[in-house]
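Input:
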Amino acid sequence: MIIDRPESWYIFIFSKDYFDSPSDPGSYIMYDGKRLTNKEYLDHWGKWVFFGERKELYELAERLDPYVEDHKIPCIKFDRAPQKWFDLEQCVMCVYCDDRQRDSVMDILSKHGVKTKGWVYEKEVIEKWLPGGLHMERWIKAHNLNETQADEIRKDSQQKYNKKFFEKPNDVCMGWEQ
Amino acid sequence: MVIARMSGQLRKLAGGNNEVEIEAGDVKECITNLEKQFPGIESRLCNEKGLVLESINIYVNGDNIRSLKDLSTKLKEGDEVDFMSAFAAG
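Output:
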């Protein structure tokens, strides 16, 4: 099911049964029928990443939607517009899964014309959003924050990710808001 | 020969080409040979010390070279080398 809400930066694809558990936002984070713990999430969860124009990614999303519905692909998101503060000129699509199933997911993507092969672990992304991380510092600069504001953002980020992922490695992973 | 693919705005560095076939034994040689075809591309991918820019990710068959042997990552016939902005992974 394609979730296209104008107030969100991203357009998402989740299976319809994801919405049966609204209080469990991490219910799609699974491998082989089992939920991942925070440690497993950091060790195994990631995404295939590739660029495209918004229109072509939307058309691809419609073709990939059935695979998400069948749980062959856990979740997909793509940009509504290029992220200019990162100097990106095209939209990015992220196709999420556990790395142990990444080859089967790439087989699906290849069948639908995706050639780019770039696998990114979510752990890498989280680290880039921590203080001093590539994304964090670029975002701060692009939004012209003063040093006090920037420090507040950095502190919040550290606390948020510590609480969500690092402090309780054996808890079931609930994902993170994007 | 390996396939070198440029994503997003990096395509401009390769004359607008998405894919280029290149002879290369490792990633460093791939970049060196890309530079011969597309002068100036190397300085957009690597710094003055020859290290990959933090803002660039290079993947060999899907794996980030930073988790492999970086620029010394060996390439074999048919390998796919993808170049993209590191910000794409946000």
